[in-house]
Design goal:
By secondary structure, this protein is an alpha+beta fold. Helices cover 63% and strands 13% of the residues. The chain contains ten helices and six strands. A five-stranded mixed beta barrel has the order 1-3-4-6-5. α4 runs antiparallel to α10. The longest helix is centred in the middle third of the chain and has 46 residues. The two termini are 19 Å apart.
């Protein structure tokens, strides 16, 4: 019954967040995006410059209501942004409010959400089949996290709120929700939450300190400059960068906090006579076994995102000291080391909190 109630409560929370307005548009010009089938292409306006194409691809597209329009697809010789259509593709086109015959639409991108929704549905089914009620609650926590980021965190930061503060509150909320879904109102859940939040606080403080002393300004984040020129020139990119570090590492921090809290609970269950020092030492030993792989996980995750950049440095024969001192790599170093610091610190924090909870008669059930 408790599983049904908790799942229903968080389903309602997700539904409520869906009703919250998303990030505001800079202007409301009445245009909308619709799917359209590409029925004809004309590549005569494209020119090949080295490895990339530049120019305008002319398309003829059919809308779901049967209307046929001409559409333009601009290629700017930017491989990461350009797209090219073929006959039979489904394109996402920009449709003006009063589009008339003869208007030329803009082809924005390929329509990918069909397979994307199928992929997500497969993930949901697998998670629920494998995890049962725990999997269903994990699914709700996944959806809830996405909605908190999109419906609350991003609009508040765009509105001028202090980015790292908003991120900290969001992470605290998500940590509390996820710990409750996993462990309930128990000593284990409280210990995992408290230890994780101490690690988050330490990560945030370290991000501010090392980010400033290493002169990382936050502009290394993708599309940061474009964001400033989109009407948000007052954003503090450095503070956004600090918040992004904490947000990116918070999942691993929660994972480690729950691992140690669960380990201490098991030790206490089998040896209830152990005192504070013995339980804390057991938690620290458990943490030592996990921290090594978790910090490596962060390193591989961050370096994987910049693998091509590292390959460029290697191809150019750049000395390690030179590329480690570059702005982009320095930002990644701060991100990786701050996240790793937080992981290492959350282990003793959670061990100490868990030992105190189980040996000093804190309220809650084991």
């Amino acid at each position: 019954m408790r599983n049904v109630i908790s799942a229903a409560v968080f389903a309602l929370c997700c539904a409520a967040l869906l009703l919250v307005p998303g990030p505001r548009r800079l202007s409301d010009d009445g245009v909308r995006t619709v799917r359209a089938e590409v029925v004809e292409t004309d590549d005569s306006g494209l020119q090949l410059h080295g490895l990339v194409e530049f120019g305008t691809q002319q398309l003829k597209v059919r809308l779901p209501d049967g209307r046929v329009f001409q559409a333009a697809n601009e290629l700017r010789a930017q491989m990461e942004l350009d797209k090219k259509f073929t006959i039979g593709d489904t394109a996402l086109v920009v449709l003006p409010q009063n589009a008339a015959d003869g208007d030329i639409l803009v082809a924005r991108d390929h329509w990918r959400m069909g397979w994307g929704f199928a992929f997500f549905a497969g993930f949901c089914i697998l998670l629920c089949v494998f995890g049962g009620w725990t999997g269903l609650k994990a699914l709700f926590s996944f959806v809830f996290s996405c909605l908190v980021v999109w419906k609350l965190l991003i609009p508040l930061v765009l509105a001028g709120w202090h980015a790292s503060t908003v991120v900290f509150i969001s992470v605290a909320t998500l940590t509390g929700v996820i710990m409750y879904l996993v462990a309930g109102w128990t000593k284990k859940g409280f210990s995992a939450f408290a230890g994780s939040m101490l690690g988050v606080v330490a990560s945030l403080a370290l991000a501010h300190f090392f980010g400033r002393v290493m002169n990382v300004n936050g502009a290394t984040m993708p599309f940061a400059q474009q964001l400033l020129y989109s009407g948000f020139s007052g954003l503090n990119l450095q503070d956004v960068f600090f918040g992004a570090i904490v947000l990116a590492s918070s999942g691993a921090v929660m994972d480690l906090g729950m691992d140690i809290a669960a380990g201490v609970e098991e030790v206490h269950r089998h040896s209830p006579s152990l005192g504070f020092r013995e339980l804390a030492a057991s938690g620290v030993r458990i943490g030592r076994s996990v921290v090594g792989t978790m910090t490596t996980t962060l390193l591989l995750a961050y370096s994987g995102g910049y693998l091509t950049l590292l390959m460029v440095f290697a191809a150019q024969g750049t000395a390690p000291m030179d590329f480690l001192n570059s702005t982009l790599v320095s930002a990644e170093l701060v991100k990786t080391l701050v996240g790793s610091f937080g992981l290492v610190l959350v282990a003793p924090f959670t061990a100490i909190v868990s030992a105190a909870v189980y040996t000093r008669g804190c309220k809650g059930e084991a």
